[in-house]
Structure formats: C-alpha cells, structure tokens
Automatic annotation (TrEMBL):
SUPFAM superfamilies: RmlC-like cupins. CDD domains: cupin_pirin_C. It comes from the Bacteria. Belongs to the pirin family. This is Pirin. Binds 1 Fe cation per subunit. Its cofactor is Fe cation. The keyword Metal-binding applies. Residues 50-122 form the Pirin N-terminal domain. Fe cation binds at residues 61, 63, 105, 107.
Amino acid sequence: MNENKAIFQRAVKDHWYVNYQQNGYPHVQQGFVLHPERLKEFDPFILMADDWFKRGTFSDHPHRGFQTITYVIDGRLEHIDNAGGHSILDAGDVQYMNAGWAARHAEEAVDDDLIHTLQLWLNLPKELKNTKTTYQDIRLEDVPHVPFDGGVVKVYSGDIEGVKGPLDSMVPITMSEINVAAGATYIHRIPENHNAFLYVLSGEVELGTNEIALGKTGVATFTFNESGQQGSELVIKGNQRSKVLVYSGVPINEEVVAYGPFVMNTMDEIRQAYRDFNAGKFGPPAE
C-alpha cells in the first residue's frame, strides 16, 4: 500500500480543443493538436498537425533535424522517398521517419481518397541531427494489443503493460492508443520523467487526479517529474466509449528553432539547411 502511494500520480496541467482551418482543395482541413508556438512546453515534441487532405498536398519536400510519427486515422497514405522507398499505409498504421541530416519524401493520399492523419514532430538532440535518414512502417497487425477490464491498449512505442512497441525511435518515447468502454477505468503507466500529452479521437474521458473531462478533439498535457527515475500513473476513465492517443518523451532541454521544414538549434543552422537543399545535397526529388 505504501509502495503504491509513492508512485507519481499525474494531473492535467493544461487542456484545450483543436481549432481547425478550412483550406479548400487539396488541403481540405488543418488544425494543430500541439501548436508550434508553444513548442518549449512540449519538449521533446515540436508540433502535432491534424490534417484532412487530397492528393497533391504533401508532394516532394525536404526535412532535417527531427523525426515524424504519422498516424493514419482514415484513408490510405502513400509514402515515397528519394532513396527508393514506397509504401501504402491504412487506418491504424503509423509511419516513423528519422529525417536526420537530409530527408526528401512525399506523403500523398491514394487515388481519390480524402485522407485524415495526425503527424507529430519529435525533436532530435543536437548530436543526432546529422544522423542517417531512415523510415519505418508500423502496421496495425504488428502492434501489441493488451486487453484490460473494459478496453484494450495498443502499444506502438515504448514499454507499456509488459510489452514493447515496434516503433524504434532515436529518442526514448512511448505511444499508445487506448480504447476504453463507458464506465471503465484504465491506469496508464509511463516513466515519471516523461513529458506527456493525450488526444481524444472519440468519446469523452475523465483524466488525472483533478478529474478533467475532455471530449473529441480535446488535448491535455500532464504534470511530470523531470528528475524522477520511477514510474507514474495517469488515470483515464471512460465517460463514454472512447479512443485516445497518449504520447510521452524525455525533454531534450536544448535551444530549438523550427522554421519551414527544418528543426535545428539555431537560425544559422536553418539557413545552412536551406543552402544545402538548394545546392542539391538532399538528393533528387521523391517521385
């Protein structure tokens, strides 16, 4: 009993709902789950975009200095990169990219699909910003499903519920999709030194020790103990049948500049990334 009391109990630190812009064709609708203007609060995360789009929105483009985690909510996502990579992801699939020093790729809707995705930008520490560019597709059927009383947790990344997710990030993170029935409660256990946020895909949940209710398109950040080395507990209660995503990671605590498609430590490094791209150092187009 005393041991349980010592476990860090998370409370909701802040919460909000996503505001959307109607952009027309082909980038039909966009909103920020995590707004880049607040990136220092979200460390190691930079932003998360919630996008509905048609083909032609995210054609060939470069990246440097960070990672992306793209979760497909609906539709089919076609990935093409200039190293010869090609794949199509369906609902529930995830693509992880370490842009590293020079990624050049395209992310497109297949045929006439209207695709709905969540893309998270995950920072890299300075010593990893020049690493090799890599891509990893995580298929839903390869994601561990761990049942609990009143629901199931799908472990995409990190060690959760005694299983390890297949997503292999360059920095320590967790990513879980949690499905909870109305009236059921799930205790999500993640390291106490992880900065964490939650996004409600459907339903309504009650969160944390302060019991904050949050519905569809709601976002919450949580208290954490950056110097702690133990676990923590986040209580998630289903007020309705609900589906949520929870992400967590260890803060990097470095200066960060996000500008256009690049995330570096200084503006000089951003300008160098543009010079390198314009000089052809990112390689040929992804097509």
